[in-house]
Specification:
CATH topology: Ubiquitin-like (UB roll)
Number of helices: 2
CATH superfamily: Phosphoribosyl-AMP cyclohydrolase
Strand order of the largest sheet: 2-1-6-5
Number of domains: 1
Order of helices and strands: EEHEEEEH
Largest sheet: 4 strands, mixed
Helix content: 10-25%
Structural class: mainly beta
């Protein structure tokens, strides 16, 4: 299946714990990040803010060992099944999804 990248050459990657099914994070990949991920078995992403490739855990040690990469039916989103060595979130939380919308100021989000 061909992948569909956006106009910036990026595709969203949902990162899920392979054992528990917990969604750990969402990041962006370009073709080179995907190639490096497939080649090394370690998750690589494209940082939109820094404009560069990065390997998850390069500085923190909290790497993501990729067990499987799935693609959705439209070919425009990836699902990485991983084994995480430590927290996935830059805040130190296991998952980036630790808040509910109700815990934030909902009026500001609308």
């Amino acid at each position: 299946m061909d992948l569909t990248y956006d106009s910036r050459g990026l595709i969203p990657a949902v990162v899920q714990d392979a054992a528990s099914g917990e969604v750990l994070m969402v990041a962006w990949m370009n073709a080179e990040a995907l190639r490096r991920t497939r080649q090394s078995g370690q998750a690589h992403f494209w940082s939109r803010s820094r404009g560069e490739l990065w390997r998850k855990g390069a500085t923190s040690g909290n790497t993501l060992e990729v067990k499987e990469i799935q693609v959705d039916c439209d070919g425009d989103t990836l699902l990485l099944q991983v084994e995480a060595a430590g927290p996935a979130c830059h805040t130190g939380a296991r998952s980036c999804f630790f808040e509910t919308l109700e815990s934030r100021d909902v009026r500001a989000a609308v």
